[in-house]
Every structure is written in structure tokens, then in C-alpha cells.
Sequence to fold (433 residues):
Amino acid sequence: MTQLLAARAGEITPAMRRVAEKEKVPVEEVLRKVAEGRVVIPANKNHANLDPCGIGEGLRTKVNANLGTSPAACDMELELAKLRAALEAGADAVMDLSTGGDLDDIRRAVLGASPVPVGTVPVYQAAVEARERRGSIVAMTPDDLFGVIEKHAADGVDFITVHCGVTLEVVGRLQREGRVTDIVSRGGALLAGWMLHNGKENPLYEQFDRLLEICLRYDVVLSLGDGLRPGCIADATDRAQIQELIVLGELVDRARAAGVQAMVEGPGHVPLDQVAANVQVQKSLCRGAPFYVLGPLVTDVAPGYDHITAAIGGAVAAMAGADFLCYVTPAEHLGLPTVEDVREGVIAARIAAHAADLAKGVPGAREWDLAMSRARKALDWEAQIRLAIDPAKAARYRRERNPAGTKACSMCGEYCAMDVVARYLGREKGEKC
Fold:
């Protein structure tokens, strides 16, 4: 039984109890929102070491970190090091997007080492295997694709990105309207190429019930992918993007009717003034399904700093109602991220998520900031470091940039506002400092 079917039956599962405990909300609230499809709990029955988390309305905004090899860089130990870095930095979920090496071994290693939900994009492996076995990506068959999906689900993958909304009608609309960057989603591009070459409908859309049957058996969350997300500011919120979103909204209804949990993925590159509108449109068309956004990146001109452009867009998106932020690293658009890139990407996305949680009044958010403020007032450096979103970096800066035993910091020294006010404010008249 899936979390959705259990919630509809009024059954509080161990995963729901764990989510309620972590979120500091009543378990009955979690039950109700899972039953409504406004919260999902990615928890494949075969992911043995999973500590479940909830994604959706009223919960803390979650952060995902993408990992994965490529044909040019394939090192399983490096990917596991990136996984450790992502977990240490506070990622709530990870995705294995590997396309190089033994994909089954890599995925299973990530699953075995990850206590957080793990997602994949099965069409990547299906395309790689089609090229290896049949000589071409477009020679992939629907059975090839569904066979990979079944394997990922059986291995314990908690959520899968499936680009079901890339239909012949939607691709035709894209062709008629035109774009600057066309299709930038790797999964969306693979499926569009397959469809146009073979003259056939997207098997993920045409055989959606087959997909639901697999997800129902293992309780895999469908992450309905945005194959036509805008890849640049000029393409944001165009007809193809919205047409795909309409299709995804209809598929959310079908997934819920079948008892399968579903969330929806979103853009992409979006100018700041359109971010909130994109979230509002998704929430309306998809009936409150959790929204998983890549960024959004709010400018195209910051290679090397796209973790910052994504954090700006992510904060605005989450404040407007997005539930799940996919991190972007400083290496985005430039190359495969390093371990340090992964850490920086997670921290940037977590800052965006927390800023939004403050604005949304998520339980515990303001209390965290208040505790930090009191520690700063007291010049309690140990508490400040403990409360920091990145304690290791805060501790390093404090250690390296201040003489041992310094009460204030080297920025202000004896002119520290906190120290001066503490000494003068409230002292007795005539008392010397």
C-alpha cells in the first residue's frame, strides 16, 4: 500500500509519524495533506536505510542535490564522496543522474549509502543501453524504457523523474513558436528526439497506466518532469512550457486516482518578476501538488556563480509556494561539479529555502534565527557556530581571522557595537566603564 492509499484509509504509517516528528506538526495534519496529494513522502518499500521526509504544503522547504557520473568522468568513489558532502551540508534528498560506468552498481551504491530519499531519471540509463546494444538512442523501445523503470523501482529508488508531458502536440507547439535554446532538459531532449525520429507518441504518456502500476507496487513518487523548461530568460513562460504543465496537471489527477504519489517539476531560467507567477500557475493547474523547481535561475550571465542566481530564484519561488529546491552548483553550465561545488550548492539552496520558510511561517524557522540573534548579542561564539547553517565554514573564519581569546571579531575589535552597547546601555548613572 502506498503512503497515499494508507492516508486515504486513515492509516497513520511510521513514515508519516517520522515526518510529523521532524516537522514539529501534528501527525493528523501530515495524514490529511498526504491524502489530499499536497504532501508526498518518497519512501520506496525497498529502501531499507531510509529516514523519510515529507515534501509539500506547510512543511519545511526541502533541498535536493544532484550527483552522477558522465562518460568523461566516471569514478564511483568520487560520487560517494559527493554524496557524503551533500549529506553533511544538509541535503534532504539526492538524485543519481549517472550516464557513465556501471549504472546499476553506481545507483545501488548510492542507495545503500543514502539515508535520504534517492531519485533517478530512468530514461538516461535506457538511452545509454539503447546506444550500447542497438547502436542508437532512437532505437530504444518502450519495453527497454519500462524495464529500466522497473529495475530502478525494485532497487529502492524513492522518486523518479519522468518526462510524461513531452508529447507530440507539445513538441509541435514548440516547433511552431520557436525558442532561443529549444530543449535544455536532457531527458526531454532524448524523448523528443525519439518521438520525432520514430513518428510515435511519448511512451511515458501513451502508456502512463503502465508507469502507475510500477509505482503502485513499490510506492515510488512520480516526479513529473519539465522536459520543456526554459533554458534561458528569453524562453521563460512560453506556450510550450505552459502546454506541458497543463498535461502534467492532468497526469497528477490520474496518478492520485490510482493511489500513486506525484509531484511536479518546474523551471528553469525565469526572470525575477515571473517567478511567483510560475509557482501560482503550477499550483492552480496541478491542484496543489508539491512543486520541485530547478533554481529557478534569474539571469543567464553568471557562469561560475549560478548557485547564487539559483538561490535568488529559489527563495522567491519557495516564498510563493514551491516546496522542493533542486540545488545548482557553481559549475552549472561549465562542467561536472567537484565535492566542494556540491557542498556550496547545497548550502546556497538551504539558505534560499530557509529564507522562504521564515516568510511562510514554517514551524521552527523563526526560532532558529532568534537563537542566533541572542547568541550574537551575547558574543557567544560557540553558540553562533553551532547554529550556523554551515558550522564548519563559520568555525574556520572565526579561528583564522581572530586572535585567540578575542571577545569581539576582527571586523570591529574594540569598537564592536554589541560590546559597546552591552557596556553602556543600562549602566548606573556615574558608573565608569
